[in-house]
Amino acid sequence: RVKMRSMLEGYGVNKSNYLTKELNIQVKKVIVDTAKEWPTYFCRLFPVVGNSHYSSVRYLGVSHTGLRLITRQRTLVDDNLDVMEDVRFEDVVDVVLPNATTIQLNSRTKSLLFH
Fold first, then answer.
1. Does the chain have fewer CB atoms within 10 Å around its N or its C terminus?
2. Could you give the CA distance from residue 30 to residue 50 in angstroms, rounded to a whole number?
3. Does an H or E element contain 112, and which?
4. Which pTM value belongs to this model?
C-alpha cells in the first residue's frame, strides 16, 4: 500500500482528486502493473474451509497467474488477507468435485481438499 500511495502521489493523485485526476495511458499502465505485483489484487475470492494443515485458509483466490490459498487476519484496526501458498496453473493436474460442497485440487506435488 505504501509503495502504491507514494507512486500515486508522485503522479499528483491524492484523496481529493483520485476520481477526477486526468492521467495519460502510460501512467495508468504503470499503476496497473504495480497492482499486479500484489498477490491478492485482481484475484477472485471464493470462501472455503480447509482441512488439517490448511485449516486457517478462508479463501481460494483465482487470478490470472494461478491459485492462492488465503488466510484472513482481522484486528480492530486492520483487515488483512495473507497468501499462505501459491499454486501456479501449470502445476495443477486436475480439479475434482467429489460432491456439491467439496473441491479437490490435485497439483504435481500434493492434493488439496476444501469445502
1. N
2. 36
3. strand 111-114
4. 0.75
Q: State which amino acid sits at residue 64.
A: H
Confidence band, pLDDT 50/70/90 cuts, at residue 22: confident
Q: Which residues of 44-74 are buried (b: 16+ CB within 10 A; e: fewer)?
A: ebeebebeeebeebbbbbebeeebbbbbeee
Kindly give the residue spans of alpha helices, DSSP state H, lying in the chain: 2-10, 25-36
For residue 23, give the 3-state DSSP assignment: coil
Instruction: Dump pLDDT digits (tens) for 52-62.
Output: 888 999 999 99
pLDDT at 82 over 90: yes
- In a 3-state reduction of DSSP, which class is residue 100? coil
Q: What are phi and psi of 49, to 5 degrees?
A: -125, 120
